[in-house]
Amino acid sequence: MSFAIATTLDQALAAIADGARPIAGGSDLVVGARHGKAPLPESLVAIDRIAELAEIKAGGDVTRIGAVVNHARLMTDPTVVGNYTALADAAALVGSPATRNVGTLGGNIMNGSPAMDTGAPLVVMGAQVELQSTGGTRTLSIAHLWDAPGSNTAAAGELCTAVLLPPPGDRCGSAYVRLEYRRAMEIAVVGAAAAVVLDEAGAIVNARVALAAVAPTIIEVDGIEDLVAGRALDDDGRAAVADAASSQASPISDMRASDAYRRHTVGVMARRALDAAVRRALGEEIAVPVNRALGIGAA
Amino acid sequence: MTIDMNNASAVTLRVNGTDYPMLLETERNLLGAIRDEVGLTGTKEGCDDCECGACMVLVDGQPVNSCSYLAVQAQGREITTIEGLADGQQLSELQAAILEAGGVQCGFCTPGMLMSATALLDRNPSPTREEIKVGLGGNLCRCTGYGRILDAVERAVTIR
Ligand SMILES: Cc1cc2nc3c(=O)[nH]c(=O)nc-3n(C[C@H](O)[C@H](O)[C@H](O)COP(=O)(O)OP(=O)(O)OC[C@H]3O[C@@H](n4cnc5c(N)ncnc54)[C@H](O)[C@@H]3O)c2cc1C
Ligand code: FES
Ligand code: FES
Questions:
Q1: Chain A, chain B: beta-carbon pairs less than 8 Å apart
Q2: Residue A274's CATH number
Q3: Which ligand is nearest to the CA of B55?
């Protein structure tokens, strides 16, 4: 078994081209291996000390969040909290202070768990993922990153270097909420993210909703705009979005919840996420994470 | 624990300001390196599964569940364990406060609690009770019911 610490991107890409698996915080990889889920890979390259992967760069036509930015930083960074608030909501719910210190954005999305917290926010905010290998760089829409539980579509040799987000606009708002049984060290029973753009009168111009832990991957709910666009959010719109989320979910039953319970509660979470996103777009300050600010989830 | 020389590499870990050279396999956890190689046993193994926080240490000042963190990943970083909090016989404010507040029963969770609390006060010197609960969210205690541990952190804040 071999282990190397990369301090530059080129070192990391060369090691990965040679068959090494990247390890950022190891909070999925090491915990999984110790559980016996999959043995530790034969060759590992640590990417958590590569400075350029730890940057958050805003301004211009894209906001770039480096792959090894950790959850603790995402939940407090002014750019993320101010403009990509659903992502901060999600990061603030991850594990505990230690998990948020060790766990990274790149690790969360590349691990591909359908219950990951940062995935649904990134989908509704139109994120792209940047993948680099010794052969070059490509970007893909984040929804195309996942194909099955615990898996991603990156090729062997590709490293996720950054998540790219469109620049913030006016009267935008986003939120992520999850159902949880505990306030710490929990994974989402179900989760939902919403992002909206309003016009000057407060009517919805654009709205997206995505769901966590109710399908083999994070899914976006189709047809949300038809249900709510052109008017201010009202009770009919809220109910229609909840119904759409519940009907498009395909949850499983496990020790944490039955499929019927998940299907029902994901509609409730979708409605609450949309509500909070609209309130934020209207200028209301709802602190990160929405779960705590509005008393959603574990008491 | 015996070490398979073919699989182990020479590593130096810096714990509480002292460098410790050792041979480590890649899969070895930081908790094992601290307890068995360095010989500091204040850091506890509870669940060994990243759930309870008994194994909490600081790596570059930030909390880490050492049971589930590769020791080799801590090379070149400053590791702080419970043994690193006191200055000789002089307890840290948090250590003194947890004794005074009666926040220790069996004591098994105490080192981990103190490491999480130390990291919390470093990033937020005057947390609210709610913020203290979030800061200690990754640490379980089977004895105290938490109230006196939270009191202890509040006490350390006020006597600062
Ligand atoms: C106690 C506990 C609680 C948790 N709670 C939550 C929670 O509430 N919500 C949640 O979503 N997750 C949770 N997690 C899961 C985990 O902490 C997160 O998914 C975290 O973001 C993973 O990041 P990492 O850097 O530790 O990943 P690693 O374990 O280092 O990597 C995970 C996987 O991604 C690959 N990888 C990592 N970085 C890259 C990259 N840049 N490019 C390509 N591949 C890469 C690795 O090879 C590995 O396969 C929890 C984990 C623990 C142990
Ligand atoms: S022993 Fe590490 S979290 Fe329990
Ligand atoms: S004092 Fe016994 S576990 Fe906390």
A1: 80
A2: 3.30.390.50
A3: 2
Report yes or no: B7 at the A interface, CB cutoff 8 Å.
yes
- The answer to the question of residue A200 being in a domain is yes
Q: Which of A34, A44, A97 sits opposite B63 (nearest CB)?
A: A97
Residue B6: predicted pLDDT: 54
Q: Which residue on chain B is closest to A293 by alpha carbon?
A: B130
Residue A274 is inside which H or E element, if any? Answer: helix A259-281
pLDDT of residue A37: 82
Q: What angle do helix axes B147-159 and B93-100 make, rounded to 10 degrees?
A: 130
Which CATH fold would you assign to the domain B93-159? DNA polymerase; domain 1 (1.10.150)
Give φ, ψ of A23 to 5 degrees: -125, 130
> What's the mean per-residue pLDDT of chain A?
96
Residue with tokens 């360095």: B38
The C-alpha atoms of residue A41 and residue A20 are separated, in whole angstroms, by 8
Give the pLDDT confidence of B13-71 residue by residue, as tens digits: 999 999 999 999 999 999 999 999 999 999 999 999 999 999 999 999 999 999 999 99
Confidence grade of residue B2 (pLDDT, cut at 50, 70, 90) = very low
Whole domain around residue A200: which residue ranges? Answer: 172-293
Is residue A267's pLDDT more than 90?
yes
Residue of B nearest to A36 (CA): B49
Residue extents of the structural domains in chain B: 5-84, 93-159
Is B53 in CB contact (< 8 Å) with chain A?
A: yes
Question: A50: exposed, middle or buried (C-beta count within 10 Å: 0-12, 13-18, 19+)?
Answer: buried
In whole angstroms, give the CA distance from residue A93 to residue A177: 9
Contact: A44, B26; criterion CB under 8 Å: yes
Does any domain span residue A262? yes
Q: What is the dotted CATH code of the domain comprising B5-84? A: 3.10.20.30
Task: Give the pLDDT confidence score for residue A299 in this predicted structure.
Answer: 65
